[in-house]
Amino acid sequence: MATVLGSSIKRREDPALITGDGKYTDDFALPGMAHAAFVRSPHAHARIGRIDTSAARALPGVLAVFTGADVAKSGVGGVVPTCWLHPGIKTPAHPLLATDTVRYVGDGVAVVVAADPYVARDAVDLVDVEYEPLPAAVDVERATDEGAPIVHAEAPRNISFEWELGDRARTDAAFAAAPRRVDLSLRNTRTLPCAIEPRSAMASWDASTGKLTLRMTSQNPHVHRLLLSLASLGLPEHRIRVIAPNVGGGFGSKIHHYPDEALVSFCAMQLGRPVKWTATRSEATQTDAHGRDHVTRGELALDDDGRILALRVHTYAAMGAYLSTFAPAVPTYLYGTLLSGEYAIPAIHVKVVATFTHTAPVDAVRGAGRPEATFVIERLVDRAAGALGLDPAEIRRRNFVPADQFPYQTQVALLYDSGNYQGTLAKALEMVGYEALRADQAQRRTQGGRLLGIGLSTYIEACGLAPSQVVGSLGAQAGLWESAKVRVHPTGTVTVFTGCSAHGQGHETTYAQIVADQLGIGVDRIDVVHGDTEEVQFGMGTYGSRSAAVGGSAIAKSVDKIVAKCRKIAAHLLEAAEEDIVFEDNRFHVRGAAAKGTGWGDVVLQAYLCHNLPDDVEPGLEETTFYNPSNFTFPFGAHVAVVEIDPDTGEVTVLRYVAVDDVGHVINPMIVDGQLHGGIVHGIGQALFEQVIYDETGQLLTGELMDYALPKAHQVISIELARTVTPCPHNPLGVKGVGEAGAIAAPAAIVNAVVDALAPFGVTHLDMPLTAEKVWRAMQSGRRL
Amino acid sequence: MFPATFDYHRAETLPDAIRLLAELEDAKVLAGGHSLIPMMKLRLAAPATIVDIGRLAELKGVRPIGPRVAVGALTTHAEVAASPVLREHCPLLCEVAGKIADPQVRNRGTVGGNIAHADPASDLPAALVALDGVVCLVGSQGERRVEAKHFFTDLLTTDVRPAEIITHVEVRAIGRGTGSAYLKFEHPASGYAVCGAAAIVTRGANGRCSDAALCFNGVTATPLVIPGAAALVGTGLDDAAIDGVAAALVVQEPMSDVHFSGPYRVALARTYAKRALRLARDRARA
Question: Do A771 and B187 touch (CB under 8 A)?
Fold first, then answer.
C-alpha cells in the first residue's frame, strides 16, 4: 500500500472508453428531444440587413427559428462575458447571436430547432440573411494600422488593451549600456485546439420547478453554470444543473463560455422540450476559441561572455472578434510573467498590445501564453548563442538561476519556488549524447547530404493555477482555488467529490491513488465523482496543469481532516491520548504499543454508530476543503530535439526527442508520461505542421482536417523521457503539474533544431510551421557556407 | 454532418444501374463512398438520387487478359494492394494502392470511384497513365474504351458521359527486365500527393533501357506525363542519365495553393523524378 503513490496503475477510466461504453454528451437522448442547428456567417465582416426565417419556419418538422432580436426580446441576459479585466480594457458586448453586424466567419446569426437533425440542417439553408460584406481586419498587427477595418466602434485602432510588466527605465538603461544585443521578430502561429470530441450540449427545462439541466462538453461545469446564470440566461444559479459526462479532450477549448451552449438552453426553455446540438468539425474549427497568434519583437542585451543583462519584448496578441472568457489573461499574466524563463535576468520589460480582428476569438489552448513566452526566450537565447559563438548549452548554463538561489524572485512578478535547471539539462544532454551529435553534425557539414540539427529548450512554466489573491490583483474575476469533499461511508469505502472536472486526464485514477496512499486502503475502495454541479460542492475546473497541485492538494487536506477525526475517535476507544495515536497501515495504535490498536473499519463504523464517541465529536465522516494555493508551481525541464532535413525537399524529420522534466513528485508515472507524450506531440505539431490560415477577406482556409495538419502517429516518433524530482515546497503532495509541459517546451526545441541545421545557409530564424516548402525556400535563398 | 435529402436506389445488375442512371434526375453513382459521401455531408454535393452499385459482383476483382491485366471498378484499394495477380504482373498498382490514405479508406475506397472523382492529388491516375491504362465504360449506348491519358480532362473532371459507369481499367503487365516505383510527397494533413511520381523503366536484352515512362500526380490539374523520359531509351540507366531527365523536366501551369506553391511542386517533381526513376531502375536490375 505504501507504494501506491508513484505506481503506474492502469487508468480505471479506460475499459469503458476503449470498449465504447463511455457516455459523451452526444450519446444522451431524452424523450421528445429536438435538435438545434446554427445559421453562421459566411463573411468575416458584414452588416446584417433583413433576416427572413419564413421559409425555414415553413419547413415541416421545424419547431422554431430564433434570431438575435428574438433573444433580446425574451429578456434573458443574452451575452457571454469576459472574466478577466485589465485597466482600460475595451469589452464590447458579445451577444448570443449577432444582430446588426457579423464579425467572423462562423459568428452565429440564428438558431433553428427541429424534431430531426436532418431537418434542422436543411432549415439552416432556408434562413435568408441579407449581408452587406465589409472589409476585414485579419492580421493581429496590421489591425492597429490607421484606416484598418474596425471590429468594434468602441475600440479605436482595434486595441482592446495595452499591458506592461517590468521596469522599462532600468531595462532601457541596461540595453543602452550593453556591449552585445540580439533581436528577433517572430510570429507565433494561430492554432486550433482540436479536441476529438467537438463541443456538444443537451438542455432540458422543467417548467414546474424552473430548473434547467444542461449536459455539455465542459472542463469547468461550475464556471459554466455561474456564467450562464449571471450573463446569458438570467436564471438563478441554484436552478441550473450543469453536467459534464465523459469529455473527449478539451485542450482549453472547453473552459470557455460560448454562445452556443447558452442558446441550446434558451431554445429548450422557450420550447419546453429537450434540445441537443453537437458541433460539426467545420463548426469546431470556425468557433472553438483558437490559440496563440502573436507577433513579437524580442531583444536581449548581453555582456561579452553571454550573460544576459536585459530582455525587452513587444507583442501584438490577437483576441479575435470578441473577448473570450479568459482571453485577456493569456498574453499577459500567463505570458509576460514567464518571459524570464529559467534565467536570472536583471532587467525585463514587456509590453503587450491586444487587438481585435475579424477572426474566431482566441483564448487558452494547452500551455496558454507559456508556450509563447518559452518560444520567445528560448529562440532569443539560441540567437544570442549564435551571435556570440557560444554553444547553445553553454549560454544556458551561464544564465540559469543557480540551484542554490531558490526561492528566486524574477523581474516579472513570479517567485520561483524550487528548481535545479542545471540538473535537467545535464541529464538531457547525457541521454541524447550531445557531444557525439555535435561531432556528427560537424562531419556532415563537410560532406553534404542530409542536414542534422540539434535544438534545446530549457523551459519553465507556472501552473497549479493559482493563488486567488494574486490572480485577482492581475485582473481575474474569479478565485482559482479548488474544492474537495471526501466522504467515508460506514463500511470504510470512500467517495471523493472534486471540483476538477476531468476530460481525459485520468483524475479518477490519480485521485484514488492519493487517497489510497493516505488511508492505506485499496484504490478499488475509492471512487471519484466530478463533473456535476448538483453532486459537487463547487469547483474551478481542469486547466492550467492545476488538477494535481490544487485539486489533489484539496483532496489530501480533506483526507488529513478525516484522519484527524478518526485519530480522535481511536484515542477515545483505546483510552489513550490523541497525540499518542499512530495511524499506519490502515490501523490506529498507541505509539510504542503496536498491539494496542483498532482497525480503520472499526473507527469508521463507530463514527456512524455514534455509540461511543468523544463528547466533542459529531457523528458521520465527511470533510470538505477549499484549498487556495499560496503560490504557483514551477515545473521545468530540458528538451532536446534532433532533426534531419532533406536538402532536396526541405522535409524535416524528427530523429530523436529527449525530454527530462521535473514535475515534482509523481503520482502515476504512466499518466505523467502520457501527458508528456501528448504535450510534446502537440508542440511538434505546432512547430512543423499546424497553422490556422485566414485569407485577406477573413475566410478560413484551414476549416477541415484535410487542410489543417494535426500530427498523426506516423509523423511523430517514440519520445525518450526521464525525470528529476524537485518537490514543490508549498503544497502537501509536493506535486507541480504536467499537462502542458510538452506543448510549452517542444515548439522551441524543434525550431531551434531546424534553425541549427540550417545555420550553414545563414538562416537565423524561421516562423512556424516549418513546412517543407518554407525550409526549402530558406535553403534556396541562403548560402551554403 | 447531415447531407441534404436524396433518393437511394440499389442497382441489382449492371444494366439495371445504367437504366437507373439514365432515367433518374440528377443521379450519382455510389461505389465505396469515400469521395461522394464526405462531399454530401459537407453539402458540397447534393445529388437528388444515389445509385448504389456496391453489390455488382461483376465489377469486382483482378484478372489477367493476355499481356494486360483488368481491374474491376469496384475492387478496393486494399484488394489491389494485396492482389497476387497484380503482385506478379503489375506491382506498381499494388505499391500505389498501398499508399492511398489509411487502412480504413483502402478497405472501402474503390479503383473506379477514385478515378471517377479525379482528384488531381489522388494516387492512382499517374500510375494508370504510365501503365498505358485504358478505362472501360458502359452506358446505354454500349461499351467504350478511353485511354487513361485522355480520361482525366481537368480538375475533378473526366470523360465519363452521363449515365455511363466505369466497369474496369486495363493496364499493361510488367514483365521481366522492367522495374517500377511510386514515390510521393504527402500533404501533411490529408495524405494526398503534393507530388506523386510513377516511374517504369525496362532494360532490353542488351542491358540498355528499351522503354521508360514517368508520370506525376499532384503537380498539375491532370496527370502530368513527362515525354522527356524517353531520353532514357538506349542509355544504361546510369544516375547521370536519370538526373538529366529530372533536370530537364518542365511543368506548364503547376497547381498552387496556400500550402504548396507551383515552383515548389516543380522542384519536388524534379527530386521525385530522380528518386522514382532510380528506384525503378534498381528494381529492374533485381
Answer: no
- The dihedrals phi and psi of A120, each to the nearest 5 degrees, come to -60, -45
CA gap A520, A584 in Å, rounded: 7
pTM: 0.97
To which residue does cell 480520361 refer? Answer: B151
Other Cβ atoms closer than 10 A to B251: 18
Contact call for A689 and B189, based on CB within 8 A: yes
Instruction: Considering only the beta carbons, identify the residue of A282, A709, A776 that sits closest to B189.
Output: A709
Q: So what's the ipTM on this one?
A: 0.96
pLDDT at residue A161, rounded to an integer: 98
Angstrom distance (rounded) from CA A726 to CA A159 = 42
Q: Are B32 and B109 in contact (CB under 8 A)?
A: yes
Write the DSSP symbol of residue B177.
Answer: T
Cα within 13 Å of Cα(A115), Cβ side: 6
DSSP type of residue A491: T
CA distances from B149 to A724, B145, B146, B166 (A): 62, 12, 8, 15
A52-73 average pLDDT score: 98
CB contact under 8 A, A708 and B189: yes
Residue partners of A15: CB distance under 8 A and separation at least 6:
A21
CA separation for the pair A373, A494 (Å, rounded): 42
The answer for residues whose C-beta is within 8 angstroms of residue A782's C-beta and 6 or more apart is: A758, A760, A761, A762, A763
Q: What is the pLDDT of residues A260-286, one digit of tens each?
A: 999 999 999 999 999 999 999 999 999
To test the contact with chain A by mutation, choose from B1, B259, B272 the residue with the greatest count of A C-beta atoms within 10 A, namely B259
Identify which of A120, A688, A706 has the shortest CB distance to residue B190: A706
Query: Is the distance from CB of A658 to CB of A664 less than 8 angstroms?
Result: no
Which candidate, B199, B140, B200, B127, places its Cα nearest to that of B169?
B127
Say how many residues make up chain B.
286
> Is B286 a residue whose pLDDT tops 70?
no
> Which residues have CB under 8 Å from B91's CB, separation 6+?
B174, B180
Query: What nine digits make up the cell of A4?
Result: 501506491
Residues B31-37 have a mean pLDDT of: 95
Q: Is residue B195 within 8 Å of residue B265, measured between CB atoms? A: yes
Q: A270 with A253: CB under 8 angstroms? A: no
Distance CA A274, CA A251 (A): 28
Chain B positions contacting chain A at CB under 8 Å are 1-5, 42-43, 185, 187-190, 258-261, 264, 267-268, 271
d(CA A782, CA A51): 55
- Between chains, do B185 and A651 touch, taking CB under 8 Å as contact? yes
User: Cα–Cα distance between A459 and A660 in angstroms, integer?
Assistant: 11
Give the Cα separation of A360 and B189 in Å (integer). 21
Instruction: Judge whether A608 is closer than 8 Å to chain B, CB to CB.
Output: no
Task: Kindly identify which residue of chain A lies nearest to residue B41, measuring between CA atoms.
Answer: A280
Q: Is the peptide bond before A174 cis (omega within 30 degrees of 0)?
A: no
Whether residue B209 is predicted with pLDDT greater than 90 in this model: the reply is yes
In angstroms, how far is the first alpha carbon of chain A from the final one?
Answer: 61
The nearest CA of chain B is from the CA of A777 a distance in Å of 8
How far apart, in whole angstroms, are the C-alpha atoms of residue A159 and residue A394?
40
End-to-end CA distance of chain B: 50
Q: Nearest-CA neighbor of B106 among B82, B136, B72, B127?
A: B82
Query: Using one digit for the tens of pLDDT, what is the confidence trace for A77-116?
Result: 999 999 999 999 999 999 999 999 999 999 999 999 999 9
Alpha-carbon distances, residue A339 vs A179, A310, A323, A422, B227 (angstroms): 22, 11, 24, 19, 57
Task: Tell me if residue A219 falls in helix, strand or coil.
Answer: coil
Residue that the C-alpha cell 419547431 belongs to: A63
Element (H, E) at A395: helix A392-399
